[in-house]
Each structure stands twice: as structure tokens, then as C-alpha cells.
Amino acid sequence: MDPRILRTRTSMQTALLELCREREFAHLSVSDIAEAAGINRSTFYQHYPDKETLLADALDSFAEQASAHLESVNESAQEADSRDTIYKFLSHVRDNVGLYRTLLSSSGSPVIVARLTDRMARLATLGLSQPEAQKALAVPVNIAAASIAGAVLGVIREWISMKPLPSAEKATEWAWAAIVSPMGITPNTTGA
């Protein structure tokens, strides 16, 4: 792709994402986006037919960047490392909460949500593929990984809908509980 085209599209995507942090996507116009990107409306339409297509491209790029936060998990992660990774990712979500509210809303992109869920599941698979983890599983690794991805995404959706927004630390506690002990029920280990 021509570097000028790439620069213009990147500028438009960045402008849109910044505007989504301030206002809801539905309240943004092509003129708002073009002005923030430093281009005119005709240039906008040379690159995208509408703001929804730009949003899909921008969210796709954003999901790529967001997944980099998830990919800091290494194959031999211990519990503390896993919790820290979740915290780092949720801090990233907190810092971009307006965008995640758009991304994970009913008007968000199902393709982007599916891609983000798939990335979470693939990363969970890394940790679950360790021999110690496999011994503890009652279900196949891919089922457990999908469950973890769904649980974390569910926690994120509920967390970012709260006002005021609880801390990333609190959301990490909730996500960890959802992963380790579904439904927040602590197993009875005393035998009683």
C-alpha cells in the first residue's frame, strides 16, 4: 500500500478512536472525524464509504494492539504472573474504557469481539497446556480455554458498564475469581 494512503488511513483511525474516548460513536459525524484527522470530507470518502467501515478497520487495528497486552503471557506463567497479566490487560481496558464500551456494546463489531475472544482463548490454551494444568482439568483444554475467555470477556463487559467505574484491581479480582472459581463459589476443601 502507498505510504501516503497508509498514513491517511492511520490518521483517520487514530482520530476516530480518540473521538470515541470522548463521545459515543453514534454521535460522531464524518465531518467530526475528518476535522480531527486533519483532512476534508472528500478525502474521507476516498478511503472509506462510511464511518462504520472506518470503525471496523480501526477496531481491527485496535484489537491487534490490545492483544499485544494479552500476549505477554509466557508458556510457564505462574499464578502471580497470570494475575499480573490480567491486571495489565484490564488497566489497558480502563485507559480505553470509552472505546471498549463501543467495541463490546450491541452496536460493536461481532467480528472484532470474536477475534478478541479467540485471542484470549489461544493465550489461555498456552497456560492450560502445561502438564500440571492438564492434570487438574476435567474438560479438554480447548473447552477450558473457551470458558476462561468467555468469563474474562463477561467480567469486562459488566465492569465497564458500571458507574462509577471500579478499579482495575477490583476487576482483576473478579476476573480471577471467575476463572479459578466459576460463579464466585469457593470450593469447600475442609471436607465438611
UniProtKB/TrEMBL annotation:
Coiled coil: none annotated. PROSITE patterns: HTH_TETR_2. Keywords: DNA-binding. Residues 6-66 form the HTH tetR-type domain. It holds the Pfam family TetR_N. Transmembrane segments: none annotated. Gene3D superfamilies: Tetracycline Repressor, domain 2. The keyword DNA-binding applies. The keyword Hydrolase does not apply. Signal peptide: none annotated. GO terms for molecular function: DNA binding. InterPro entries: Homeodomain-like_sf, HTH-type_Tx_Regulator, HTH_TetR. This is Unannotated protein.
